[in-house]
Amino acid sequence: MKKRLLSIARRTRSASSVFILVASLLTPGLAWGAERRNSPVDPAANQAFIQALLKGGRAEADRRPLYRSAYYRGGLPPASEGVCTDLIWRACKDAGYDLKTLLDADIRANPGAYPRAGKNPDPNIDFRRVPNQAAFFKRHSQSLPIILKPDDPANLALWLPGDIVVFRNPDHIAIISDKRNADGVPLLLHNQGPWASEGDDFLYWAGRGIVAHFCPPFKK
To answer: Which pTM was predicted?
Structure first.
């Protein structure tokens, strides 16, 4: 892995890239997170939120709820079932962020911002639709670049733990893990079936198309 990373650094001829790569070799868990691109009022609280979000996403992956797309009266599927959006709101809940309540309220107040909800909002399902979660995060968080360059360390440094990424073909949403593969590409915490997992799937989904990239924490 070290030879691979140093080879990339030599090809990029970028001092910043070399710094990032060397730092990642020495302290892989810290180096990537050091480039977080926001200016929270309380950096410690920001990091605590991100760590709680990651812990919640990983807990969902460890529970391995089966992928099942269904409509549930009351909105909440059983803990043993879920889809990609369920991992997101469950991780947010573990971080003290009630995504369902906030998203439902935003749809009521700003229906035009949620074309998938339209004029007939349904709290039983709206918060579990990828386009609606994407619309909410677009309105309440920082939008980031959507081009992933797996051989560019400086670009890889833009994709940080706790970030939310939205894909297309089909619609899909995931949390970026704090773990990376041997080439420095982040793993994903998501439910793509047959159950929730933490996997080396980023390049596969990026090939289908990245439509959005958001940075926590999310404004309430």
So the answer is: 0.83
